[in-house]
């Protein structure tokens, strides 16, 4: 599901993030992120879907494989944010 890209009063492009708040490039997790909690994964997926980052840019920025990112996206589509829990991964497969 693609999102419409919008511009805020400062001219920054944004999309609506997983919490319902506007999400800009500066709001994304830092590139050196090591601990991927549900919210951070969902923010990266929302940014790619909204066009803030391309799939390749996201994978390069966060040192992800295409398959890893696509698995996050598929988990959200199938099971919502709960599908991103690593402790629940086996239950959802």
Automatic annotation (TrEMBL):
Gene3D superfamilies: Winged helix-like DNA-binding domain superfamily/Winged helix DNA-binding domain (1.10.10.10). Pfam families: DUF1153. It comes from the Bacteria. Signal peptide: none annotated. Residues 1-28 are annotated as: Disordered. This is CtrA inhibitor SciP. The lineage of its organism: Bacteria, Pseudomonadati, Pseudomonadota, Alphaproteobacteria, Caulobacterales. The gene is sciP.
């Amino acid at each position: 599901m693609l999102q419409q890209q919008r511009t805020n009063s400062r001219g920054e492009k944004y999309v609506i993030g997983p919490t319902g708040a506007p999400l800009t490039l500066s709001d994304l997790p830092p590139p050196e992120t090591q601990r991927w909690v549900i919210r951070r994964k969902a923010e990266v997926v929302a940014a790619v879907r909204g066009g803030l980052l391309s799939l390749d840019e996201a994978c390069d920025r966060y040192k992800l494989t295409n398959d890893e990112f696509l698995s996050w996206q598929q988990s959200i589509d199938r099971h919502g944010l709960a599908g991103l829990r690593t402790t629940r991964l086996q239950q959802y497969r």
